[in-house]
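Structure tokens please, single chain.
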Amino acid sequence: AVIASLALLTTSCTTMAETPGANINEQRSIKPVTNANKRTYKVVTNQNSQTDRLGNLIRQSEQAYQSQRLTIEQNTNIRPFGGTSQPGYYGQSNTFGETNYNYVQWLNLSPYRANEVAQYKRYLANYLGEPAIPPFDQLLTTARSWDRCGYEQYQLPPSELWSNMVSTLRLYDDLKKQGVIPPTAEIRSTYRSPSLNACAGGAGASKHMTNGAIDIWVPEYEGQPWYKTSMQDRLCQFWSSQGQNYSFGLGIYSTGAIHLDTQGYRYWGAEYSAPGSYCRYLN
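Here you go.
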């Protein structure tokens, strides 16, 4: 009986090896199938299961890509997320990539926000031309302490205040064209609501509340006092010689912040007073 069983097993294996169409590259697992009278073997391939797993991986990758796409295309230069950092003029670190990424996220939060921002951009371009309009991730920045005060980082000013920004941006553009400030200067604060302005420590009559003021800084001048002092000298000289034509309001602070507005010819510094201004040495 033992010899007969061995003979039967040998015959079955030989028959399987000679079966036409067998693919030696396929992975096989041989599982015994027991009948009442004899033992045979069944070949099971893993080809279909591997194909299913590959298809699932492809679908998961496509879903992940779709979920990360931006839903609104911006007419702005979006720096890569996690870009280089520069110390801010309040002694903080500003990651440029995060700033722009956050702006796009903010813009996408409301289905109406992108359209309203586009209207503001067209309004300014109508008076200034597109080349004179700063990036909107700068132009809509509120206050440096927005997070501590419980506000958003960006805010669109009310439409009735849009006109106040036109003359200030014209001044800002002329300062760059005349070499008073470098072309790499950036805007760090614009419109603030009265409550945010109070929380941020702004002046009681701050022109930020009327959307007529911008705070600027030059990132590469941080840690370079000679360049910063030279720029402040040029600003004071411009204010003295041409400022009245612009109704130029100039604030220069020890922190490095520079305030520009066109809401009245004046200058100030520490404690929002003229005696504390860097430009007092002109007199």
